[in-house]
Amino acid sequence: MRVELLRPEARLLIVGGLSASAALALCLIDPAAALTGWLGAAVAFAAIPAGALCLMAMMRLIPGAWGESLRLTCEAGTLLALPALALFLPVMLGVRAIYPWMAHRPETAFQAFWLDPWFYALRTLLWFLMLWGAARAIRARRRTRAVAAATLVAFPLLGSLVAVDWLMSLDLHLASSAFGLQCLILSVTLAFAALLLFRIGAGARPYRLGVLGALLLTLLLLWAYIQFLTFFILWSPGLPDGAYWYGRRAGGWDVAEWAFGLLGGLPLLLLLLAKVRKSPRLLARLCIAVLAGKLIEFAWLALPGQGPVGLIGFALASLGLGSGAAAGLSIALRRRVCARRPT
């Protein structure tokens, strides 16, 4: 089905292409820092189709007003799975520059197998193919309840695995059983905020907006709990590896911690007010704040030690991929609307 580009979408794609090209051009200066910055932005982009699939699977098993309001928007979000895979090509090609474990000789046969760059790329490929295949089956209404149930079982297991591959393995000292869950709730919260913001700006006021605001509040509560749980597990026992990981985020990164804490905590408190949850204007502003906070948090996870090039690369890549995500969601949503219309 052919969908014509609208002028705002074309402009977003141009801005996105130029910004992404500038981010990759920084590889000429410092490949490791530039590609790590790209990785952080690519993981944030990949959160949209992953979170959209999780939400869409929940809609099939937990029907309600919230699902009817966001169904088409979530279906559009899942269509970004293959573009997200394409954005990981620079990461898979530059894996030797990004990850410190590539410079260490494996100590066991399992390490030699698991840490092979080709197997890393295969695991990444399988994750996105799972997202694409499950979302396609649910959109096509093929055994949706069975597929949705299997998706919600596989999602935390496989999602935790790729979170370890993509982000936790950036630091050889870190070993945390809660890290994957931390990244998953971060990704789903970012995705929900992006999809809700897009739905509010797409046209008519969503049905039962207060329910959607309450769901955003629930996700922020889960995010705050998991953040505290991870900190408690790593820091409070005084384990040297956990202390080292948090110690790398001291200094200038303290500002980032305050930023994403406030950009998540203040919306959480404001969403306790029913008036805020039911206001499209206020809810849209809170979604923007949540999105900004989650992007900063992804930078906080990925970029310590990468210097100015990593930060600039992340900022340019985030602008480029964010513009591409906005254009892609708009195009995908019109495709889903057209597919639903009777012919």
List the helices and strands and how they pair.
Layout lengths: L6 H19 L5 H31 L3 H14 L2 H7 L1 H5 L1 H4 L10 H6 L2 H23 L4 H23 L12 H23 L7 H27 L4 H8 L5 H18 L3 H4 L2 H23 L4 H34 L3
Helix pairs in contact: 1-16, 2-3, 2-4, 2-8, 2-9, 2-10, 2-15, 2-16, 3-10, 3-16, 4-8, 8-9, 9-10, 10-11, 10-15, 11-13, 13-15
Please outline what is shown here:
Helix content is 78%, strand content 0%.
Brief descriptors of the model:
mainly alpha, 16 helices
How many strands, what sense, and barrel or not for the largest sheet?
Answer: none
- In total, the number of strands is 0
Helix and strand content put the structural class at mainly alpha
Q: How do the helices and strands follow one another from N- to C-terminus?
A: HHHHHHHHHHHHHHHH
Number of helices: 16
Radius of gyration: 20 Å
Strand content: under 5%
Distance between the termini: 12 Å
The share of residues in helices is over 70%
**What form results from the Cα inertia axes?**
globular
Structural domain tally: 1
Give start-end ranges of low-pLDDT stretches: none
Mean pLDDT: 87
